Structure formats: C-alpha cells, structure tokens
Amino acid sequence: MNKVKTVQLVYIFTLSILLLLLLDAVPTQLVSLKQTYAKVWSGGDLVVKQPSIHPINIQNQTVSESIKIGTMMLYEDSAYLVHLQLIDQNYPLYGELISDQPGYIEPGTIWIAEEFSKQHNINIGDQVAIGDQVLNVSGYVQKQDEQVFDFEAFSPSVYMRIDESASLGLITETSRLNYYTYIKTDDPMLASYLKNNIRADARLIEPEESLGRIDRVLSQVIDFLWVARLIGYMMAGFLIHLALEFYHHDRAKDIGIMMAMGLGRMRRLRYLSMPIMMSAIYAIILGSLCSLPILYVIDRLVSHMPIQIVLPGFELIKRAVGVFIIMVFSLSLIHISSLLGMSVIRLLRKHPRSINYPLMFLISSVIAMYSVVVSWEIITVTRSILMLVMVLMGIYMVLYVLIQTFMRYLQRGNIRSLLLLNGLRLYQYEYTFVVLFTACLLTLGIFIWHTQTQAISSWQATLPEESSNAFLVGIQPDEVELLKRDFLWLNDTFYPVVKGRLTSINNKTNQTYQEGRFIDHEVFNRQINLTMLDDLPENNAIIEGEWGDEGISAEEGIMDRLGLSLGDKLTFLIYDDVVTLPITSIRKVEWQSMRANFYFMFPMNAISQYPASYLTNAFLASNKRGDLTLLQQKYPGVAFLDIAMFIEQAQSLLSQIIYLATSVLVVMAIFGCAAFVQIISRQSGQKKQQSIFMAKLGISPMKYPVIKDELYFIMLLSSCIALTCGVAGIHYINTIITAKWYFDVTSLFMLLVPWGLTAVYVKLLENVMERT
User: Fold this and answer.
1) How many CA atoms lie within 13 A of 22 on its CB side?
2) How many C-beta neighbours within 10 Å does residue 250 have?
3) In angstroms, rounded to a whole number, what is the distance separating the alpha carbons of residues 628 and 82?
4) If you count DSSP H runs as helices and E runs as strands, how many of each does the chain have, helices first?
5) Nearest to 109 by CA among 122, 126, 121
6) DSSP state of 575
C-alpha cells in the first residue's frame, strides 16, 4: 500500500475516533452533571425532606436546616409569586450561596435573586411585604448551587433567616412547604439509622437521587440522544468499513500472487494486518492529540452554566479509543477472513467486494458498546439489540428494494439513465447506507424543528378561550367566602386539599410493587394533593366503575402509568395516619380545561377529619392584574400561581434540550460529509477510467454528469424517505397526545441544507473536470 493510501487510512481512522469522542462528550456532560454535582445540588451527604417542621436531633454531625415555601411578595404596587427560602447560618453545607453581602442575613431583612431584582428594579434598602412582615432588601443572591425542583421553585427565590419564620404567619398545619435537614457525614451507617427512625411522612434523599425531577428530564434527554448517538456510532463503523474495504480491495491482487506462490496463511495474514495495526496506532496518537483542543473548546462552552462542569477528558478519550479498537478489530477480522477465503482467480482479477459484512454484527457491537456507558441491565440490552436489529434490517431491506426497483426502471431509459444505472450497480451497497444515514438525520432534524415550534404552541391552541390562567393555593377554610366576595373573577368551586403520599398498592411498597418499576414515581416520593367531594366535578366523567362513598376515584392517566386496576387497594400516609381504600371508579379528565384536577378523589367521610386548605382556579384578565396587590395585602398566605410563568420556564428548558440535540446532529452531519467525500474519493479511479472510456466513444462527461446524477439521486431518495417518516411521525404523535401537530412546510428548510451542500460539491467537481 503506497503512502497516499496509508495517509487515507489514518485519516479515516482519526475521523472515527473524533466522532466517537464527540458522541460521548454531550451525554457524558449530563452524566457528569448528575454524578459529580449530586452533593452540591442536594446540599449535603444526606438530606431529610419533610412536609412539616419536625427538627431532627443528630449528634456529632454537621447539620443545616431550611424551609422552602411558595408565597406572594408585594413590592410597591405589584405582587409576585416567589420561592421563599428560610435558611440557617450553616447553609449550605456543600456548594455555594453567593451574595453581594458578607456573612448571614441581617434580622428583619431579605435577600433576593439578583436577576429578579434587575427585572423589577428592586434596590438595596427597598421594602417588600411577605406574609405579615414588611422587610428591607439587604442583599442580592448571585448564585445558589442547591437545586430544588418542586413546582413553586420555578419562581424567583428570596431568602430570609429561618429563626424569623414564625413572624411571617405563613406556616400552618396545612401549608404547602418543605422542611429540609442537610447532614454532612462520613458515617456509612447513618443512612440506615435515619431510614428506620425518621417520621413516616419524611423522605431520606441521598446524593445520587437528589436531582429529583431534573434527573428524569436528563434521562429522557439522554434517551433521545441515544438514537442520534447510535446513528453516529454506525457512521463511525461505516467510515472504518469504507477504509478497510478500500484497503483490502487494493491488496487483493497481492494476496492472490502470494497464494499462487504457496505462501502460508499466517504470512498472508501478517501482510494484511500489520499496515492496519500501524495505521490504527498512528490514528490513536493523532486522534488523542486532536481531542485535547476539542475538549478544551467544549469546556469553555459549558463554563457559562449555573454549575461549573469539567468534562473528564482522559476518560472520554480512553473510551473513544477503546470503542475504536474494538470496531477496527471486529471489522478487520471479518474483512481479512473474507479475503483469505477467496479463490486465487478472483483475487488476481482484483474484483473482490471484500465483504458484505453482516449488518446485524455491526449493530450488535454498537449497542454493546453503548450499553457499557449507560449501564443497562443485560436483559434490557438483549431485548433492545434484537428489536433494533429487526427494525434497522427492515429499513435497510426497504431501501435496498427501492434502489433495485429504481434500477429496473433505469434499464428502459436513455444513455444518461444507463450511466446512472451503472453507478448504482457498482456502489449500491455504499449508497444504501448513505441513504439510510442521511434519511435518519433529516428525519431527526424535521422532528426537532416541529418540537421547537409546536410542542408548546399546539398545547396552548387546545385551551378553551378564557380558560383558567392561574391557580390559588393555600386558602384557609375561613377565607373561602371572603375571597369569593372580594374577587368576582375567581371560580365558584373551591376544592378542599389534604396533603398525602402514596405508600403502597395492594400492600406492596414502591420497592416491591411490580418489582420496583415505579420506585421513582412522584406519587410515591412527594406529597400530592388529595381532595374529597360529594359530587363529580365539572370536566370529569366516569368511564368505569361507580362514583360513590365507598372508595377512591382515580384518573385514567395515572391508572395507566402505574398499572392500576379497578379494585386495587391504595394506602396513603396522611398526617401520620394510614388510610387504605379501594379504587371504585375511573375518571376521564379534560386537562385542557385548565381547571383544578386531581389524580385521586376521596369520599367526604374518608379524610374530612384531617386539616385541609383550599384550591381554586381562575381566569385573571390583564385589566385585573392590579387585584393581586389587594390579594397579597388581605390574604398573605394565599399563593397565586401564574401559568404563563411556568409555560415560559418549560419553553426555556425545551429550548436548551433542542439546542443540545441540534448540536449532536450537526456533529454527525459534519462527519457524514467526511464520509461522502471518502466514498467519492475511493471511486475516483473507476470514475477516471469511465470518463476516458466515454471520451473514446464521443460521449461528453459534461453532457452526461454521472457523479452529479448519483449524488442527486441519493439526496432525492433520502429527502423523500425523511419527508414520509416526518409526516408519519407527526401523525403518530397526534394519536398519543391531546394537542394536534401539523406538518410545518417551513421544516423543509432542513432538506435545503444538504441539497445546497451537494450542489456546491457538484459544482466544484464540474470545475475540476472542465480543467482536466
């Protein structure tokens, strides 16, 4: 193999290493965030979370306490929903709470989030009202490492001393609050001790589970990236395969001569394998060196996140190199075995197609590599491998049949059609994979486009006109009639709310119910709102069972998600009491109504003995926003939850996820372009011979642009498949969600990008051919 071919092999190997590295970097960034910063985000080695204030006495350990509650804050003539955090002097045990003021919060004062203060022009020394107190703003909080993902935590944070909590008048037995005890310890037995001794309604949080709901969000993002990452892994394997096939095709004649001379199999094996081994070593060295500036740039890009993340560069490089070695070894073994098993005549003709290596083997290898990173269970890995192999083999066969059908159609065409037919016959194997990769990338791009433009807007379009845009929570029983009198825009229906946590289903805890499948579900791990009613509320319909006073009425969605059935017995912990009732009816709820809805509704006689606050929904017109000031002044314990604020937060989170997914697609698209260039370059010899032969026959290559036709055919077929899959995907989404998506014609912009790049590349080739 000459020097040019060696450089080409090293070049492709290096590209494959960098592709594997970049495909690991983004998911590893999320995993690193979850693992490295678990203690920082939780605030301690152990955290006890309680729905009411019950101090924990722990000897010989460093302890900190905080109370977190959603409430209204009045500033000048405006009222704002804020996340009030009452903290002690030890807070935080881990991470930072950075303020522009040194030390602890002064008595009778408050710190507020700096960004919130800038938005509303709140200055040091200004006065704000929270609960029964008027407080002076004494500082701005610029950064808080502890992350809380309760519903109210999406609102801006304000901070007070925990020893002033009683003066606010906000904390009652029905208050929706969380009391946190942070513990810094190196005692491995303390977690077991706390589990056995804390109150039944308390929850022990360890660092690895401290991320709460965000952990599930990150997991869903990683699951999405799994699809893109799998395509990238296959692309890396495809690049390696192209390089190896080109290499073995070039060496076929030499192997045939060696066989004719009677040289042994081992000598032929060394002749084939040594250049591959040396090229792989050079590629590993070059790829590792190139990885360092790439990782540095990624580190700089993520340095602006709220929590500093440093990618484990050595681990990433080691894993990328490890996967590369396994891929090269596996594919080289199959290529070499195929070449050594060919006859002398076929080798001397120098026309071995090397191999049509088993697609299933490649996919299985890719999944196995990925499973090492994600730590799937072996059963899940096996099931996923088999399912994915079947799906991708099916897709591959469909593409193969489409190309074969098109080739049959070309047989009846003119000279240009026959020339295109010849190119497709020679490279149908490579072109099938190129179409598969391109179609997958374009389909993901179309899906990302629609998610960005329609995920929130389509849901909002389903809401009735003047539907509720806010909820009022924390209403005391003696305030219900007064609120109805003072604010006519409130809904007439006020729902009693009792806090409770689901502890078991049919006497099985979350660890044992369905083998722990729902151990992290929110109904097991936090206090949820339970209500008690005599009559079925509006926008609810019984679809199975009977509404009555013998049992619980459950919403159909939670029934499906938890695998519940009519007659199942649910046990709830309510104010230290255990309440067990069967499910006697299943309700269909119109969530689009934006009214107060509940997973579980109890009969009045079941939980009426427990203290309850009230909840209602409301439509607050823009010209009535000034009433919020009066609301806070007269009813300081009532929190006004503005739905628009949560939609804004959801849109922000969605945009970050879309940005992350788009970055992965861009990376794969760049390496896809490299694969295209490699395919064209390895065809250069045959294309030159074809041009010479056409010239001898008097056929102008400019009149019959073979390469142009082949590339445009690939793009046309890929675009049609992506368009079909995009429309089918949107139709499927419409069958599983209440909001209705439509196919956005502007998403075709995703198809224009590869078409434009192809046109530019074809133009460059035409200029080269003209000069030639």
Assistant:
1) 28
2) 15
3) 13
4) 21, 20
5) 126
6) T
